[in-house]
Design brief:
Blueprint: H1 3-9, E1 22-29, H2 39-54, E2 68-80, E3 83-95, E4 102-116, H3 133-151, H4 159-172, H5 189-197, H6 202-215, H7 223-235, H8 238-243, H9 249-266, H10 274-283, H11 288-291
Parallel strand pairs: 1-2
Antiparallel strand pairs: 2-3, 3-4
Helix pairs in contact: 3-4, 4-5, 6-7, 7-10
C-alpha cells in the first residue's frame, strides 16, 4: 500500500487509524553564539526532535517507510535570558516510485526566527490556541511539509494541511514575533501559506503534482517519457510567471529542484531541451549559471 493509495482512500475509511507521519531531524547550531554552557542548546535540540517526531499531525496511517523525511536547522545568532534569535532552514523530501531516490520538495530559509525557551520546557501543540512561537513555527512548517508532500501524490491533496497551517498563522498574528503578518515582509510565513492556498498561484501546486507523478515516478519505466513530462511540467510555470512575476513560489520551487533538474537532463537519454531551457532562463534567471551546465 503506497501513500497515493492512502491519500485516495482515507476519506472512505470507517475507522480512523492514527500514526506518526514525519521522520524529522532537528539541528540547533550554536556556533555563532558566545555561550560557555552549551547544555541549553542540546536540550532544545533534543526536545524539538522528540516533539516533531512523536506528535501525530494527521488522522492518516503512514507506514514506517512512508514517513516524510525532513529537516529543521536552526542557526542561532543570539541567545540571552531564554530568548533565541536564529534563521531556520526547512527541507523535505519525497520518495520516487521504484527507486531508492528521495526528491527534494522544499528548501526554505526563514530569517525571522525569534522565540522564548526555558530548558526542559514542555512543548505542546493545539490547533485552536497559540501555545508559543517555537511550537507555532515547528507546527506551521510540519503542515506545509505535509501539504506539499500530499500535493505531489494527488491533485490538491494538500488542502487540509494548508488549511491547518493557515489557522496557525492566524493564531500567531496576535504575537509580536515577526513572520506571521503581511506587513512583516514579502517572503515570510504569511505570504507562503497565502500563496499555497490562493488560486492565483495554482500552477505551482499543479506543477508539483505533474513533476513528480507524471515525470519522476515514470523515470524507471520510461526515462524519455519521464523527461518529457518533467519538461512539460516546468513549462507550466511560465503562465504563473507572466501573470505574477513577483511571486516567490517560483523561487521556492527551484531552490528545491535546481540540482535535480541539472542532474536529470545532463545524464541519461537525450531529449530536446531547448524550449525548456528558454523557459528556465526566463522564469528562474537567478539560476542562470546552473542552466548553462545542462548538456541535454
Amino acid at each position: 500500500m503506497n501513500r497515493l493509495f492512502l491519500l485516495l482512500t482515507v476519506l472512505f475509511l470507517s475507522e480512523q487509524i492514527y500514526s506518526q507521519e514525519l521522520n524529522a531531524q532537528v539541528i540547533v547550531n550554536s556556533d555563532l553564539v558566545n555561550q560557555t554552557n552549551q547544555q541549553i542548546f542540546k536540550t532544545l535540540e533534543r526536545s524539538l526532535n522528540e516533539f516533531i517526531n512523536t506528535q501525530v499531525w494527521t488522522n492518516q496511517e503512514f507506514l514506517t517507510q512512508e514517513k516524510i523525511t525532513c529537516s529543521f536547522v536552526f542557526n542561532l545568532s543570539a541567545y540571552s535570558n531564554d530568548q533565541f534569535e536564529a534563521t531556520l532552514q526547512v527541507q523535505s523530501q519525497r520518495p520516487v516510485f521504484n527507486t531508492n531516490y528521495d526528491s527534494p520538495v522544499l528548501n526554505f530559509l526563514d530569517k525571522d526566527i525569534v522565540f522564548s525557551y526555558q530548558e526542559f520546557q514542555p512543548l505542546f501543540f493545539n490547533t485552536s490556541s497559540f501555545e508559543s512561537n517555537l511550537v507555532s513555527l515547528i507546527s506551521f512548517y510540519a503542515y506545509v511539509i505535509l501539504g506539499l508532500d500530499a500535493d505531489s501524490f494527488a491533485p490538491n491533496g494538500g488542502n487540509p494541511y494548508f488549511e491547518t497551517a493557515r489557522q496557525i498563522v492566524n493564531l500567531a498574528q496576535n504575537t509580536s514575533r515577526k513572520g506571521w503578518k503581511p506587513s512583516d515582509g514579502i517572503r515570510n510565513r504569511f505570504w507562503l501559506i497565502d500563496g499555497l492556498r490562493s488560486n492565483a498561484f495554482r500552477e505551482y501546486r499543479q506543477v508539483l503534482y505533474a513533476y513528480h507523478r507524471n515525470g519522476l515516478d515514470q523515470m524507471t519505466t520510461d526515462p524519455v517519457a519521464g523527461k518529457q513530462a518533467l519538461m512539460e511540467s516546468i513549462q507550466q510555470l511560465e503562465p504563473l510567471y507572466q501573470r505574477r512575476p513577483d511571486t516567490f513560489l517560483i523561487q521556492i520551487f527551484f531552490d528545491a529542484k535546481v540540482e535535480e533538474i541539472v542532474n536529470i537532463f545532463t545524464e541519461g537519454p537525450k531529449v530536446d531541451f531547448k524550449k525548456t531551457e528558454v523557459v528556465l532562463k526566463k522564469i528562474a534567471p537567478f539560476f542562470g549559471a546552473r542552466w548553462k551546465q545542462i548538456k541535454a
